[in-house]
Design a protein that fits this description.
CATH class of chain A: Alpha Beta
Largest sheet of chain A: 6 strands, mixed
Strand order of the largest sheet of chain B: 1-4-6-8-10-12-14-16-18
Order of helices and strands of chain A: EEEHEEHEEHHHEHEHEHEEHH
Number of helices of chain B: 7
Number of helices of chain A: 10
CATH topology of chain A: Rossmann fold
Number of domains of chain B: 1
Number of domains of chain A: 1
Strand content of chain A: 25-35%
Distance between the termini of chain A: 26 Å
CATH architecture of chain A: 3-Layer(aba) Sandwich
Number of strands of chain A: 12
Number of strands of chain B: 18
Structural class of chain A: alpha/beta
Shape of chain B: globular
Helix content of chain B: 10-25%
Radius of gyration of chain B: 20 Å
Radius of gyration of chain A: 18 Å
CATH superfamily of chain A: P-loop containing nucleotide triphosphate hydrolases
Oligomer: heterodimer
Largest interface: A-B, 29 and 23 residues
Bound molecules: adenosine-5'-triphosphate, magnesium ion
C-alpha cells in the first residue's frame, strides 16, 4: 500500500530525512520509534503533504500512485490521514462545523453526496461517545483551549469518522492518561482491517501493548537504523537507543 | 437654503461654514485624512453642492420622524441639531446640506422592530437621531452607491438609552462615500456599532463619540473585506469625558489585490475621567503583496486610574492552520475562506441583533468567495 524508497527530505537548507526506506502492506500496523529530532514528524508531514518539505531524492508510492504529486486535500480524499503530534488550534471555527466540512469535502472528492447536518451530527455523536469526547467540546472552537489529551482524542475521533486507508499517528499517545490511552488504542484497533494500513509513531512501548504492531522500525538521523518484530520495543525500552546507534546503520 | 430655519440652527450652521471655509476639502496633509486623500479621489468634480437623499422604510412604532428640509422644526430638533461634532466633512455637510432626516425615540420607548434608514444619491445630507432617557433602538443604516456622498450624522443618547447601530457599506468601484457620525452619550447609556465595509474608491466612516456621563458605554466593531483597488477607512475618536466610562473597539480587515484597509482609533481620557476603561484592537490579514493595512490605535490619557489597552497586528493567513484543514480534505480555496471567516468572526459576533449578524455573515461569505 505504501512504498517509501530512499527518501531524502529537506526543510530549507537542512536535510532531515536521509535515505529512508519503508514499506507497509494493506492490513498491517507498523510502528516507528526513534530519538527526539530524528525525523519522525517530518516523515509524517511529508506523507500528508505539508508545504516546505522538499523531496530531493527518492519516492513515495501509495497504492501505485506518486503520493508527492498530490495536494494534501486530494491525499485525504484518497484515504491518507495524519493524526498530528501538535493539533492546530483554530479560533472562530467550531469543531462540529469543521468536522462536517471536512467529511463532506472528502465525500465530494470521492463523488459521494453530502451528508446533511443531522446525519453528520448523528455519526459524530456516536464516535464521540466511544472516545469520551463531550458534546460541549464539539461546540467549541477547534482545539482551542482543549487539553493535550482532548486534542489527541479529537484526532482519533476524526480518524474514526473519516475511516482512512492509511492512518499515520504521530505520538497520539503522548499526554494521554491510562484510560484515554486505552480508548485511543481501542479506536485504532476498531479500524484495523485487511484493507487498511497504519503507521504509529511513538516513544513508548506501553502503547504497543495495546496496539500490537506487525513491525517496528527505528528511525535515527533521518534513516531507518533497525527493524524488528514487537519484541524490539521491549528491547528499546530496556536499553535505550544508544546500542543501536553505535552500530553502523 | 430654507429660510424657515430657526435662528439657533442658522447660527450653528454659520459657525460650521466658517470652520469648513478655513479647512477646505481634506487632503493627505491633514493628519486624520493621511490614508484617505479625499481631494485626489474627488478630482475636478470636487464635493459639489448636490443634495443627497434619505429614505426610511416602514417607520416602526415609537419612532417620530421629521424632514429637515421642512418648516417648523420641533423643539427636540432645535435643541440637538448641529450641536455635536465639528470635524471637517461634518462642517461641510452642515454648510452645504438643506435637508436630511431627524428621528426621535421618546423617553422610555423600547422599539422592537429595527429602524431602517438608507442614504443614497450624490451630494450632502444630514441625519439626527435622538434617543431620550431609557429609550432603546436598533438602527440599520444602508449605504447606496453614488459618485460622491457626504453624510453628517448626529446621535444623541439620553440617560440609560441603548442603541445598536449596524451599517453595511457596499462593494463598489468608483464611489466616494464619506460619513461622519458625532455622538453624545449620557450617563448609563450604551452605544453599540458595527461597520461592515466592502470598499470603494474611497470609503470613510468617521466617528466622534463623547462619553459624557457616569457609566456611559461605546462598543465599536467592524469588518472589511477588500479586493481590487478598494479602500475602506474607519476613523474613530472616543472621548471619555466622565469617569467610569467604558469603550471597546474591535476591527478586523481582510485585504487582497491592491486594496487598502485603514483604521485610525484615538481614545482620549479627559482630565477627571478617572476609572475609565478602554480597549482597542485592530487586526488585518493581507492576502497579497500589494494590499495594505494602516492600523493606528492611539491613546491620550489625562486622568488617573484608567485601564487602557490597545493593539494592532497585520499578518497573513496562518500556514499551519491552512495545512491542517487541507490535510483533513478541505480544498484550499474553501479552507482559506473558512480561516478568513474565522478571523473575522469575533468582530461579527459583536452584533447583538441576530438578523443583522446573519446578514453580515452572509455578505462576508460572498465577499470572501471572491477573494480567498
Ligand atoms: N521547519 C523546520 N525548520 C528547520 N528545522 C526543522 C523544521 N522542522 C523540523 N526541523 C528539524 O528536523 C529535525 C527532525 O524533526 P522532527 O520533528 O521530524 O523530529 P521527531 O523525530 O518528530 O522528534 P520528536 O520525537 O521530538 O517529536 C529536528 O532537528 C528539527 O529541529
Ligand atoms: Mg515528532
Amino acid at each position: 500500500m505504501l512504498e517509501i524508497k530512499n527518501l531524502h527530505v529537506s526543510v530549507g537548507d537542512k536535510e532531515i530525512l536521509k535515505g529512508l526506506t519503508l514499506s507497509i502492506k494493506a492490513g498491517e500496523v507498523h510502528a516507528i520509534m526513534g530519538p527526539n529530532g530524528s525525523g519522525k514528524s517530518t516523515l509524517s508531514y511529508v506523507l500528508a503533504g505539508r508545504a516546505g518539505y522538499d523531496i530531493t531524492e527518492g519516492s513515495i508510492t501509495y497504492n501505485g500512485e506518486d503520493l508527492a504529486a498530490l495536494v494534501p486535500e486530494v491525499r485525504a480524499a484518497r484515504g491518507v490521514f495524519l493524526a498530528m503530534q501538535y493539533p492546530v488550534e483554530i479560533p472562530g471555527v467550531t469543531t462540529m462545523m469543521f468536522l462536517k466540512t471536512a467529511l463532506n469535502s472528502q465525500r465530494r472528492a470521492r463523488g459521494e453526496s453530502d451528508l446533511d447536518a443531522v446525519a453528520v451530527l448523528k455519526l459524530v455523536r456516536a464516535k464521540a461517545k466511544t472516545l469520551n469526547v463531550s458534546e460541549e467540546m464539539l461546540k467549541r472552537a477547534l482545539n482551542v483551549g482543549f487539553s493535550g489529551g482532548e486534542k489527541k482524542r479529537l484526532e482519533i475521533l476524526q480518524m474514526a469518522l473519516f475511516e482512512p486507508k492509511l492512518a499515520v499517528l504521530d505520538e497520539t499517545d503522548s499526554g494521554l492518561d491510562i484510560d484515554a490511552l486505552k480508548l485511543v488504542a481501542e479506536g485504532v484497533n476498531t479500524l484495523r482491517d485487511p484493507s487498511r494500513a497504519m503507521l504509529v509513531i511513538t516513544h513508548y512501548q506501553r502503547l504497543l501493548d495495546y496496539i500490537v504492531p506487525d513491525r517496528i522500525h527505528v528511525l535515527a538521523r533521518g534513516r531507518i537504523v533497525a527493524e524488528g518484530g514487537k519484541e524490539l520495543a521491549l528491547e528499546l525500552e530496556a536499553k535505550g537507543y544508544e546500542h543501536i546507534l553505535k552500530e553502523p546503520a | 437654503m430654507t429660510l424657515a430655519l430657526p435662528s439657533t440652527i442658522q447660527a450653528r450652521k454659520a459657525e460650521a461654514a466658517t470652520i469648513f471655509g478655513s479647512h477646505g476639502v481634506p487632503t493627505r496633509r491633514v493628519e486624520e485624512w493621511k490614508y484617505s486623500d479625499l481631494k485626489v479621489a474627488l478630482g475636478e468634480a470636487g464635493i459639489g453642492t448636490d443634495q443627497a437623499l434619505w429614505q426610511v422604510d416602514a417607520l416602526p412604532d415609537g419612532v417620530e420622524m421629521f424632514d429637515l428640509s421642512r418648516d417648523g422644526a420641533p423643539d427636540w430638533v432645535q435643541k440637538h441639531f448641529a450641536t455635536a461634532g465639528r470635524n471637517i466633512m461634518g462642517t461641510a455637510s452642515l454648510t452645504l446640506s438643506d435637508g436630511g432626516v431627524a428621528l426621535r425615540i421618546a423617553k422610555g420607548a423600547q422599539v422592537s422592530a429595527a429602524l431602517k434608514l438608507a442614504f443614497h444619491g450624490n451630494g450632502h445630507v444630514r441625519g439626527l437621531l435622538v434617543l431620550e432617557e431609557g429609550a432603546s433602538l436598533t438602527l440599520v443604516e444602508s449605504v447606496g452607491i453614488a459618485d460622491f456622498r457626504n453624510v453628517g450624522f448626529e446621535i444623541v443618547l439620553g440617560e440609560g438609552a441603548s442603541l445598536e447601530h449596524v451599517r453595511i457599506s457596499p462593494r463598489s468601484g468608483d464611489a466616494v462615500l464619506v460619513e461622519e457620525a458625532s455622538l453624545r452619550i449620557a450617563a448609563g447609556a450604551r452605544y453599540r456599532a458595527h461597520f461592515a465595509g466592502f470598499g470603494s474608491k474611497l470609503s470613510r466612516m468617521e466617528l466622534e463619540i463623547a462619553l459624557e456621563g457616569e457609566g456611559a458605554q461605546a462598543h465599536l466593531s467592524g469588518v472589511s473585506v477588500l479586493d481590487g483597488k478598494r479602500h475602506s477607512d474607519v476613523t474613530t475618536h472616543v472621548i471619555h469625558r466622565h469617569g467610569n466610562t467604558t469603550s471597546t473597539q474591535l476591527f478586523k480587515h481582510v485585504a487582497g489585490g491592491y486594496a487598502r484597509a485603514v483604521y485610525q482609533g484615538k481614545v482620549t481620557v479627559a482630565k477627571g475621567a478617572d476609572g475609565s476603561d478602554s480597549h482597542q484592537s485592530a487586526k488585518a490579514l493581507l492576502l497579497s503583496e500589494n494590499a495594505e493595512a494602516d492600523l493606528k490605535p492611539e491613546l491620550e490619557i489625562f486622568a488617573d486610574d484608567v485601564k487602557c489597552a490597545h493593539g494592532a497586528a497585520v499578518g497573513d493567513l496562518d500556514a499551519e492552520s491552512l495545512f491542517y484543514l487541507r490535510a483533513r480534505g478541505i480544498p484550499e480555496a474553501e479552507a482559506r475562506g473558512l480561516l478568513l471567516q474565522a478571523f473575522l468572526e469575533d468582530a461579527v459576533a459583536e452584533i447583538v441583533n441576530t438578523d443583522q449578524r446573519e446578514l453580515v455573515r452572509t455578505e462576508l461569505l460572498t465577499a470572501l468567495k471572491g477573494i480567498a
